[in-house]
Here is the input.
Amino acid sequence: MEARDFRALLGLIVDATPSALVVLDPDYRVVRADRAAEVVHGPGLAGRLYHGALAACATRCDGCPAASTFADGTAKTCPRPHTGPRAGEVLVVESHPLDLPGGRRHVLLVGRIRSSVGTERRAWRISDRYGELSSGAE
Here is the structure.
């Protein structure tokens, strides 16, 4: 497989993953975001500061996993869930080091939508309580 074909295949795989993938540079700017990240956080993420683009915040959050990963080069999970700004999904956010050639570190943020099993169970309990039939999450 040629390098061009391999890059195209890798791009398809990244865009097919259900997780939101965002690459940050050492200045906390978004270098690249996959399709899922743009669905969750909106288009035009590249070049923006990540906390404003992803969390609509003026500054980084306390306990920011990206800051910890930049500092010590280890993967982290954010201690609290985040809410997607567009549709209100509850996200679990992880950060992973990306050490590029030349010694420059970037960070890969992975946002996964938290399972809705509990929400579906709550919907069933609520519908049972009121005598209504419901098959979906609230």
